[in-house]
Design goal:
Blueprint (H helix, E strand, L loop, with lengths): L1 E5 L5 E8 L2 E10 L5 E6 L4 E8 L5 E9 L10
Length: about 80
Amino acid sequence: MQTTTVNATDQTTGITVANGGTSLASFGYTLTSAGQVAGVADSLAPTTVNSYGYSPNHQLVGQTVTRLHMPIDRKSVV
């Protein structure tokens, strides 16, 4: 099942995908004052955070991708 969260102006700010009570993935969105996507964070492994830049004419001019490393559980490494 997918659940979408929206703000007061009906713009998507989050999406969660689940199977029963188990969350499979989630995505969070931050928006600029013009309503463009300024950033996206996800819960997938490795967790990724994307940031976007726009020109004064609201054109996409850049993207930065940051991958957050998951700690290694050494007990489960074979």
